[in-house]
Amino acid sequence: MQDLIEKFLNRTISVSERKRLKKWVLSNKENLNTFKKEINNRSENNLQHHFDGKDAFKEFMVAVDKGRTKRRKKLHFVRYAALFIGILATASFIYVAQFNNNDNSESTHVSNLSNQIVITLADGTQQVIAMDDTKVLTDKKGNIIAEKESAGLDFSKIENSSGANLVFNEVYIPYGQKFKITLSDGTKVWLNSGSSLRFPKNLGTSAQNRMVYLEGEAFFDVTKDKKRPFIVNAENLDIKVLGTQFNVSAYKSDGNISTTLVEGSVNVYENSNPDTKILLSPSYQAAFIKENGTLTKQKVDVRTYTSWMENRLIIDNLSFEQILRKLERAHNVSIINNAESLNNEMFKGEFQNERIETILNTIASSTPFTYEIENNVITISK
Length: 382
What we know:
Elements: H1 2-9, H2 15-25, H3 29-45, H4 53-63, H5 77-91, H6 95-99, E1 118-120, E2 126-128, E3 136-138, E4 144-149, E5 152-154, E6 168-173, E7 179-182, E8 188-191, E9 195-200, E10 210-221, E11 230-234, E12 237-241, E13 245-250, E14 256-263, E15 266-270, E16 273-280, E17 284-289, E18 294-299, H7 302-306, E19 312-319, H8 320-331, E20 334-337, E21 346-352, H9 356-364, E22 370-374, E23 377-381
Parallel strand pairs: 5-7, 10-11, 20-23
Antiparallel strand pairs: 1-2, 1-6, 3-4, 4-5, 6-9, 7-8, 8-10, 9-10, 10-13, 11-12, 12-15, 13-14, 14-17, 15-16, 17-18, 19-21, 22-23
Helix pairs in contact: 3-4, 4-9
Organism: Flagellimonas aquimarina
Domain FecR protein: 176-267
Transmembrane segments: 77-97
């Protein structure tokens, strides 16, 4: 079986060969230990290539079970995950202890592009935000304008003079990354992958409104100021608040713009028609449908729309096409879908900080397709 193990480790193994390998691995304890030892050796010897033995074993166990679950187009991933955990419990009672020390390791077989977080300052200069030893962000004159945090920038701790002119900074977050900004008034903004935020350098008391411009997705925790509303402009919509917590998703490639309220209250309206407002209370969402220009309101599970902040993907009746867009942003990849007949298939499920291969393998267990990875391009075929 050594040749099949090598094929698995080199990612050249076929479906039929996987089944043969699985049958051998699970036939007795000795074979199981041999298989895990080979994976562990590869993991230790290939740290520079980010080969993770734990993830490799999980992927093997998921992939070999594809053929069992083709009977349902709509797969409840949570139910599948319970089945998968049961398989692991019986098949790898030693595996858990063996790899337990690597639980926090991050790995992927999809290489990350060199896209970086870039901020364009009010003075026109552009800077790459590198989380290095530098503790502050400065403008071209050397003035300190923000402090660096572990995964973000804080503009609230720096004294900024409130000039007569309102000037803006703009930050761009590439695919595969997230970023937090604390604005000068203390408002906290978590930006999702593929998003940009244009915001005033100084949200001083002289400004009548506190207005920012979002493209993409962000979660806002707005500092209360009864005299000065906070307004998020998201393409066709404006979201007006005094102080609250809410999520806005406004990617140009998506068919709608949504605002989901977690705490407080917000007014949502088309910026071309501010008289038609929708007032949201917690757990409600306003969605603007771009195709027909309608603004709707519905009650939702807010976890579904804020889970990205915890590296969790919750799929609640999303189409295959919508899922692929989310995966592209979160994992910094390009996906070519040649299985267009799957685009409108609907799914439900939940993943916690999983590699993209694991997610695709799980989906493929109910809606069969194959995929190939080359550099940062994933090609899906039926």
